[in-house]
Amino acid sequence: MITDNMFGWRTALRIIFLLIMTVVIMGPLSITVLGGFKSLGELRTSPIGLPDHWVLSNYAGILSSADFWRYLRNSLVISMSCVVLTLIVSGMAAYCFAQLHFFGKRCCLPISQSE
Amino acid sequence: MSTLAQTQPGVRKTLWRPSNALVTFIVFMLPAFVLFTTFVMLPMIDAAHFSLYKWSGYGAPTDFVGTQNFERLASNRIFLHSLGNSLKIIAASMFIQLPLALGLALLIYEKRWSNTVFRLVFFLPYILAEVASGLIWSFIFDGDYGLAAEIARWLNIENFYILANRQWAFTAILVVIVWKYFGFHMMIYIAGLQSIPKDQIEAITIDGAGPLQVIRYVKLPMLKPAIIMSVFFSVIGALQIFDIIIPLTNGGPSNSTHTIVSFLYTFGLQRMNIGFGSAVGIVLFVCCATFAFTYRATFQREKGAAR
Q1: How far is CA A72 from the centre of its chain?
Q2: Which architecture characterizes domain B68-306 according to CATH?
Q3: What is the pLDDT of residues B220-250, one digit of tens each?
Q4: Which of A10, A59, B8, B283 is most deeply packed, by most CB within 10 A?
Q5: pLDDT tens track for A75-114
Q6: Across the interface, do A32 and B108 touch by the CB < 8 Å criterion?
Q7: Which residues of chain A lie closer than 8 angstroms to B172, CB-CB?
């Protein structure tokens, strides 16, 4: 590891592979994000690349619509209650599985790291 | 549930006497038990009940047909095809996704700022909502306006419609699935790799092992619990793929890209055959449960033998 040349072929290969993967991941995502700044006509004619003129009305329309914020609030309520309930309920149940011995304990867990 | 023994050693006996164990068990287990019963067990029992009826979902199920739903299922060519598709997803996630995730994890598990950036990027698709990623990729694959059309224009070939092609549509879906879920498994492996003690790697390096030998003799053996867990998650997840299929192909062309769950949704719920759909659900549940328990039994026995 230490003797590895900084610009050895191994490092180069590693970086090339990582960059290819980054392009594969970021390609679709960036097309979508940039597509939001294009007009519908431009999206049809040139789906990739930067928009010729930046159309802000798509994102502005979303951010200024009351519906969007209501949906966001709904998601927030669901996710928060999910987190709180899961933490409390499954934390308590997990304590039982970890610290107590009872009949049927082994059957209840499909995967268990420590027995 | 009544044969409660004493607490494990190491827990202070003065605080948790055996008599307290029962109280603890009841108080701590009750909320999980109630929630699990109402939202998991009862619907499952209901589904098993409905699967024996020919029922549209309206009124009470009265048309008892016995195992006819299951017989129809066994001879349904689309269902058998969707079963095969689910197996293809399992194969793709085991033999493409997991090696890819493992390779990337080995490349970027060390704590450096550049690795952190890559880790964040590779984890992005997993954060994305399933339906959103399905829509994004349906735009990419779109042969009229999307990236596929652009590529066709560059190469000067006729427009191709991957998602409308019976031969290639499912391959495209597999690409999306690998794209979306490899980050999750990569994170499991990274966590596993970071917990490997540095002195072990150092010791084998001093003994003259190259990077590949370090991977083969230290990292992979130490990763075994993580690999066991991620295979489990990928198989169970593969059997339940649904949200990606619907925006991409909606099961088409000519029902060739259904998975078990999208088959359930299309032929059970959309066509109001709740009885038939429940039968599909029961089959899926039996598949998952059989896999989960065989898997556990296999790997725990191995663990016990190793001790």
Answers
A1: 17
A2: Orthogonal Bundle (1.10)
A3: 888 888 888 899 889 988 988 888 888 888 8
A4: B283
A5: 999 999 999 999 999 898 888 887 777 766 666 665 554 4
A6: no
A7: none
